[in-house]
Amino acid sequence: MKKQLITLVALVVLPAFSFAQTADEVLDKHVAALGGADKIAAIKTMEYEQTMSVQGMDLTAKAAYVVGKSVRSDISVMGQQITNVIDGDKGWMINPMAGGTTAQDIPADAMKQAKGTTEPNMFQLAYLKANKYPYELVGKEKQNGKDVFNLKVTRPEGTFNYYLDAATYQLLSYKGAVDVQGQKGETTGTYSDYKQVEGITVPFTSDITAPGMPGTITAKMTKLTLNPTVDPKIFAKPN
């Protein structure tokens, strides 16, 4: 009788385990929802344009990537242009809003955490395995009435929890405990308005907060170009 009971318990419990999602399975389905690993790996360069708003101010921004190597962002606000560049292990910035009119080197401690910025934010989970960042599946929970998977990731700049729609496997939001240039705090983001561009599904709207920011930045992408020709000269520090 005891053996029969053990067998019955095993038959009931094992199917439950067989349907449980693993971190790798959730991540693989997310990458597939983006368009697939091959299509993402084929993106070597990228450019996009955005409109942005924060605390009633309207901004425009554009960015150019050589994926995994270089990124340049230019933000126009109140007639001024703020430029940030990461190029390999070096970086520089021009911020006239902070009184700087010439290019300044990005501090070494900030550069240690800058590698991730050379990878487009919308594909950040797709590069986890290549970057060998530790990750684990915390579990399934509710967020704004939706079932979501909570994927915990340890990145150089901090620890993040990414929330993936359990039905579509698209990234809905994230939160992270970060240390940016000596400022410790929480960064958050939400993503919406997913559209397809050349077989890749990407969010065209995001709401981001981070330590040091004056408030939530709402960004709406107005143009996205995959694999354009990017002139390497745009990453060179001006004399």
Task: Give a structural overview.
Helices cover 18% and strands 48% of the residues. The chain contains five helices and 13 strands. It has a 13-stranded antiparallel beta sheet, with helices on one face.
Structure keywords:
239 residues; alpha+beta; outer membrane lipoprotein receptor (LolB), chain A; 5 helices; globular
Q: Would you kindly provide a brief summary of this structure?
A:
With 239 residues, the chain is of the alpha+beta class. 18% of the residues lie in helices and 48% in strands. Strand 9 and strand 10 form a beta hairpin.
Question: What topology does this entry show?
Answer:
Elements: H1 2-18, H2 23-34, H3 37-41, E1 45-54, E2 57-66, E3 70-77, E4 80-87, E5 90-94, E6 104-105, H4 108-111, H5 128-131, E7 135-143, E8 146-155, E9 158-165, E10 171-180, E11 183-197, E12 200-209, E13 217-226
Antiparallel strand pairs: 1-2, 1-13, 2-3, 3-4, 4-5, 5-6, 7-8, 8-9, 9-10, 10-11, 11-12, 12-13
